[in-house]
Each structure stands twice: as structure tokens, then as C-alpha cells.
Amino acid sequence: MRRNSIRWRLMLAGAVAILITLTLSAVGLSFLFERHVERVAVNDLAARALTLAGMVENDADGVPHLTDPPPDRLYRQPYSGHYWQVSLGNEERRSRSLWDYRLTPPKDPIPPGQRRVLALPGPQDERLIVLEQGLLVNANGQPLPLRILVATDRTAMQEAKRDFVTELLPFLGVLCALLLTAFWAQIRVGLQPLSEVSDRVLALTAGDRKRIGTDLPDEVVPLSQQIDQLLDQRDAELTRARHRAADLAHGFKTPLQALLGDAEKLRVQAQTTVADSIETVVGSMRQLVDRELTRARIQSDRNSAEAKPDLVINRVIKVLKRTPTGADIQWDISGDPDLRARIDPDDLTEALGALLENAMRHARTRVTTTVARHGRHAVITIRDDGPGVPETALKHLTQRGVRLDESGEGQGIGLAIVTDVVDAADGQISFANADPGLSVEVKLHAK
């Protein structure tokens, strides 16, 4: 997929957005899970704190004191990660799990009836989450503060979070794959109208359509309308240019004819040299005028035109056989009679007429023509058995843009018109020595 492809850019942007979203989701979910686990742990510690409050009993004199705690293995194993510490006035009791370690909460006491969550170091420098519960106990009518600290190691919470993330990642990977697949399908469906426009442009090039049309999704219609307007403007401009060229060429014909009349008058006056010079110049100018008239007749709308090369060849050869030179030539014709080329029939007649006439003029006894389909092209080959063309001149003939009538090899202005016709039809023409003779290959788009 190319870097400047819209599909590649959308897919890359979508993939980056999905990966960022899933990464943020994983971070957010792990944070929420950690908060949830911590909330559960705090609630459990609050319940244990209220249980430890039952350690307070009054003696026979009604003085409250701390008794033995409820039995719990977690608090009897040294450094088990579960600890408690209860202070009643100046009396303090700690869980066996603390061993000789004492929790050091903030010095400011918590108000009675409230609780707070603390982060304190443990006996082995582990991180503890500690719930501090403040209560008041009645001591013969006097309030006695009761401070309960219940702690648990955060390691278990961190392990739970790590296990949660580990189990979450495969699901996020599957979700990422599903989202990428869905996004790819969305891009494919969303860009399908652009593929339709591309297909219609190819149909325009192949001559299967005259315009793109507006039977497309609303978002693509402005583009298709602009392209159709450009095509309309191009055809209109080509038509105007063709008319201007024809008018200009016709405008030259009358002055040239007048010059020929003047040359004839000079010849009558025995000024033969001047008359010959004028006629030579007028002849060259008339060739150029005839060429421009032919070029002006070349059709601008190539897409809807079609011609049968085999039929055109037979029609041109039938005319050439009526000439003295053509009557002495053996014409070999072969090819597909149903093959159609994307070119105006009159333009093809103009081009093949010049090529066949040139082959007839240089042939000794035989001219061979073939018409065949090569892929999407109709290939017309014309070969004579004459002397051919020098290799140095042949290289110039195959160069694009070189005017064949300027090659100096006697092909004349007709072959230059052939080049114009083939170029206008978006075709190709090539020359090669056939030993003997010259072989000309014209390649046009097949219908």
C-alpha cells in the first residue's frame, strides 16, 4: 500500500487511534480495579476494626480495659502482613504478627466516630494500607479515647492488579484485532465510491462511456461533475481549434490560387524562372494547407468512435488497384474482419491510405497487410518488399515528435499526417526494416 494512499492513511490513523484508546482503557481499567480492590480491603479492615472494638471490657470497678483479642491465625503469625494495634487511653495492645514493631500513625488523633485510611511502613518496610478508627469509651462518666489501627500488606493488592492486567491483555489483543478488521471493512466500504469513479474514468479512456455521470454517492457527485465539465470544455475547445484551423487553411487557398495565376502570366511573358520559383513555393504551401485541413478533420471525440481496420484496408486497396502502379502489385490481406479499433473510420482511412500508398510506391511486387488483436490493442501491420529505409533514418522515424515529412527520405507529407492521426487516437506507430522492405506497425486501442 502506497504512503500517499488515502486508504493507507485512514488505516494508519485508525490503527493509531485504536491502539491509543485500548492502551488508555487498559490503564483506566487497571486503575479502577486497584481502587475497587482497595475499597474492598478498606471495608474488610473496617469490619475487623469493629471486631477489635470488642476487646474493651469494664472491670468490677467499671473501669474499661483491653482484654485478649479474638483468635485469628493471620494476626498470630509473625510478619504475616496482617496487623492490628489498639490503644485505650494509655493502654496499648498489638497483634502477635507485629512482633516487637509498633505502628506509628500521625500524632493528631482522629475525631471519635470517624475513620481514615493511612499508608504506613510495616515491620519489614513493606507498604501497608492502614485503617484508623476512632471511638470513645465511657469510663465512669468520663470519655476515654479508643484508637484502633488495622493494617494489611499492599503486596497482595498489587499482585491482584498484576494478575488482572495479565488476564486483560489477551482480551484487549483480540478486541484490537476485531476493531482493526471492522475499521478496515469500514474503509473499504467507505472508499468504494472512489473505486467506482476510477472504473468510470477507465471506461472513459476505453471509450465505453462518454461522461462519468451523477449516479454516484452525494459526496462524490461534485467531483464527477467537475470532471464532466472539464471534458465538455475540452471538447468545445478542440472543436473551436479545429474550426479555426480549417478556416485558416481555407483562407490560404484563394491567395495561393491567385499566385498560381500570376505565375502562369509570368510564364506567358517568358519569365519562366520566376514562374517556376513561385509555383515551387506555392506547391509547398499548398501541401502545408492540405495537411492542416486533414488535421482539422481529425475527430476530437475519440471515445465513441470505432472502425474495422480490415474493412478500411480492403476499401483503400480497392481504390489503389485502379492506379497503374497498384494494378501491378500483389496485395496479400489477412486478419480478423470483426476486430474493431477505437478511432474514427475517416481518420483511419486517411492514415492507412497514406501508408498503403507509400508501400505501393516503394514495393517491387508485393504488399502484405495483417490485422490482429494483441491484448487490448488492434495491431495493423503493412509490409512491402522494396529497398527499405537506411538504419540511420529509421532511428529518426521511431522518435516521438519527429515529423516524418522532414526526414528527407521521400516519404512525403502523407506520413506526417499518419503520425498526427495515430497520436490523436492515443495509438503508436513504429517502423522496422523487414529485409526486404519496410514494415510499419500501427497499434490502436481495440473496442
Automatic annotation (TrEMBL):
Gene3D superfamilies, per the entry: 1.10.287.130, Histidine kinase-like ATPase, C-terminal domain
Top-level EC class: transferase
InterPro entries with a match to the protein in the record: HATPase_C_sf, HATPase_dom, His_kinase_dom, HisK_dim/P_sf, Sig_transdc_His_kin-like_C, TCS_sensor_his_kinase
Superkingdom of this protein's organism: Bacteria
Enzyme Commission designation: 2.7.13.3
Keyword hit for NAD: no
Record has Cell wall biogenesis/degradation as a keyword: no
Subcellular localization: Membrane
Keywords attached to this entry: Kinase, Membrane, Phosphoprotein, Transferase, Transmembrane, Transmembrane helix
SUPFAM superfamilies hit by this protein: ATPase domain of HSP90 chaperone/DNA topoisomerase II/histidine kinase, Homodimeric domain of signal transducing histidine kinase
Ranges that cross the membrane: 12-33, 164-185
Coarse class of the protein's main subcellular location: membrane
PROSITE patterns (alphabetical): HIS_KIN
Chemical reaction(s) catalysed: ATP + protein L-histidine = ADP + protein N-phospho-L-histidine
Domain Histidine kinase, chain residue ranges per copy: 247-447
GO cellular component: plasma membrane
GO molecular function annotations of the record: phosphorelay sensor kinase activity
Name recorded for this polypeptide: histidine kinase
Species this chain originates from: Paracoccus amoyensis
